[in-house]
Amino acid sequence: MTDKESDATETESPVVLAVDNEKRVVQAFELWLNDDYSVETATSGQEALNQMHDGVDVVLLDRHMPGLSGEDVLEGIRKQGYDCHVAMVTAVDPDFDIVEMPFDYYVSKPVDEPTLQSIITELLELREYEDKVSELYRVCQKITTLEAKKPRQRLNEDERYQELLEARETLQATTRELVTTREMSAFEDIFEAKQ
């Protein structure tokens, strides 16, 4: 494999940013995840914010760090408008203060490799679903706009409109498939009220 091919492969892998002030923790995460993801690490909140970029897909974020806390980093990520999912991976037990925190997943340490892999897989699947739903929404809006302003005959004759209809059908099938291929038990665990 040439260097150019290697670079292309690396950029195609989802990017995970692991943030923890304990160097051994981010090293463990990197070791566990390196085969499947492009892993970047930071050992402080400020370093994490400095390393953030649009290519980051998932952030694994500790809450309790000196200087900028995980909560500060999370707030900075959201204020700067980065479109990534954040999993809080922390020894801090959750309390009602998490209600206002804009993270996607919360897991208490210690965490093992299968759990971490599962969390990232779930967040990436969620991202794919969100992307497809957003794309479907845009296509449907274009169809609705054209149908409101153009006569049916012109619509039927226009190749671009027909392509929109085909795109809508494909995206509808894809989003249905993404939902049905998810383990139903995962949805039940998340969405069913626990007694």
Topology of this structure?
Blueprint: H1 3-12, E1 15-19, H2 23-33, E2 38-42, H3 45-51, E3 56-61, H4 70-79, E4 85-90, E5 105-108, H5 113-149, H6 152-157, H7 159-181, H8 184-191
Helix pairs in contact: 3-4, 5-7
Give the neighbour order of strands across the main sheet: 2-1-3-4-5
Shape: elongated
Radius of gyration equals 21 Å
CATH architecture tag of the largest domain: 3-Layer(aba) Sandwich
Number of helices: 8
Q: What's the order of the H and E elements?
A: HEHEHEHEEHHHH
Q: Indicate the percent of residues in helices.
A: 55-70%
Query: Do you know the CATH topology of the largest domain?
Result: Rossmann fold
For the terminal residues, how far apart are their CA atoms? Answer: 55 Å
Model regions low in confidence, pLDDT < 50 over at least 5 residues = 1-10, 190-195
- CATH homologous superfamily placement of the largest domain: Response regulator
